[in-house]
Amino acid sequence: xxxxxxxxxxxxxxxxxxxxxxxxxxxxxxxxxxxxxxxxxxxxxxxxxxxxxxxxxxxxxxxxxxxxxxxxxxx
Length: 75
Hints:
The structure is a single chain. The chain has a domain at 16-65. A hairpin with a 4-residue loop joins β1 and β2 (27-34). The protein has a 3-stranded antiparallel sheet with strand order 2-1-3. It has 3 helices and 3 strands. Helix content is 43%, strand content 28%. The mean pLDDT is 82. The chain is an alpha+beta fold. The chain is elongated, with a radius of gyration of 16 Å. 7% of the residues are buried.
């Protein structure tokens, strides 16, 4: 069991969250956990099934997403 938890920890350390943002509406369309920015761009491009890569780039932006976690300090 310990070895499995180490493997999962290593897997999570390589993964980052990326979000697809509509440039016109300035809203988040999708969020996925992937290895790097290039993989994220390719994933979202294929998922949207837009014939032209240029059209995709005009409509959407892919950016890394860091989720802020609120923590409370108890005294």
